[in-house]
Amino acid sequence: MDPVALEILRNALTAAAAEMDVTVWRTSRSTVVRELLDYSTAIFDGNGENIAQAARIPQHLNSMGAGLLTVLRDHLPAERWQDGDVVITNDPYCGGQHIPDILAFRPVFVDGARVAIVGTLCHHLDMGGMAAGSYAAAATEVFQEGLRIPPLKLVKAGVLDEDILAMMRQNVRRPDMLWGDLQAQLASLAVGEANIRRLAARTGADAFMAACARMLDGSERAMRAMIARIPDGRYEFEDFLDNDGISADPVRIHAAVEVRGDEITVDLSGCGKQAVGPINATLASSSSAVSYCIMAIADTEIPANAGCYRPIRTIAPEGLIVNARHPAPVANRVAVTHRLATTILGALHQAIPGRVPAAYYGVSYVCSFQTINENGERGVLVEIEVGGSGAYADQDGLSGYTFGMHNNFNIPAEMIESEMPLTVTGYGLLPGSGGAGKHRGGLGLFREWRIDSAEAIFTANLERFTHRPYGLEGGEPGREGRLFVTRDGERTAYGSKVNNLRLRRGDIVRLETSGGGGYGDPAARGPEARARDVALGYVEV
């Protein structure tokens, strides 16, 4: 296959992953998938290596391949996969992320050869456990976080296993939403398989597999060339998580990034020990943050696939918060990966100043509501809010903008109010929340929900309430996050971790997210920029 044909095929594979993406979006049921877009799709070669992906969530895309390889190596060898099978798992210790995320894979056979595997990952609305949304802030074991599904075949040779589905439906709060989103995943896999079959039929199975190997090699060469342009050296940085929800003690996140020639080693040995509470991450999750950071600093376009990971080495001893040992709880594992991202980028700023922005909000502001009406009917809402991005050397940060390990949308207020007994009483940018600097950090958000049901149960897994997003080159940090509940006119402040708080009709929950860090000396900000900040309400006067 000549270089032009190879590039055409690479783009065709990316388009196939994008069509899988659109299929999930158009057929899913829950707001966390349909509106928040908390899902990803990717295509892997026959050995489980990522070769193409849609433009979805870095947290997912950089770890789906590791999850698939774990399944193939430790649980279901490739020889046991048949045409028409669909393998699923959500077990964090069997290749998964955290329990709400269900991975689903389907092999693609052409002329009897397994030429590819297509995959989807969806964050499901609820998978059981001690809190709605399976995001318990007080869990101390993974067993408390919901239904764990080991790698198994939900579909065998094209036939759905009704017994497995029944078991799953029996253990979740909204079985209709679970099944609806699972169907969206199955439809997406079918679309991906059909597209890969057509492509491989045109090239032939052997030529297709050889082309996939060349794509991986090409991305590896491009990544090595990019790394070689970074000055050799060892660069260190640290940041902290507020707490684990059980203890008030902060948790250290430390990264030592060593650049040698065309390879990078990221040593996470200085991170804190795994926590009692659910802010731990498995190595697959933490490695996704490492891969994201190295790809994010690239000074040229590099096709994203598993070849990019080959020059990157991660050191993370088991038992640390970045490589938790079973059965540590991992519901809020993005607390670690967001903070890892800002920490690694802080280290890389020392190597390539001017290319790396100040810290973004660096947390998934996850809140879940379970509403209960007089007739006992239960509703579940999972919200994931964002904040402000960090400023750059040459421009302000973006406000209310999904950044870093994220790529989520927001759930429209109208959609929430049409499906849940909740009213969104306020939503907007938060003046003064961005860090000051020559270039100002982006603003965080505020959002308020009023309880309109007889009662409700509220859980929050938040961060950045104590340790603010850092600024660079003299820029100030972004403002911390805050959480309040107003009842009968009296407002009460809460910490960043809240588990199964009982609410009643009329209570108002207000979340304020952190802004991004500033870049450069605030005194260097020009008068025109200052006047614009005031005119647009970006700063508090």
UniProtKB/TrEMBL annotation:
It comes from the Bacteria. Coiled coil: none annotated. It comes from Roseomonas populi. Residues 2-522 form the Hydantoinase B/oxoprolinase domain. This is Hydantoinase B/oxoprolinase family protein.
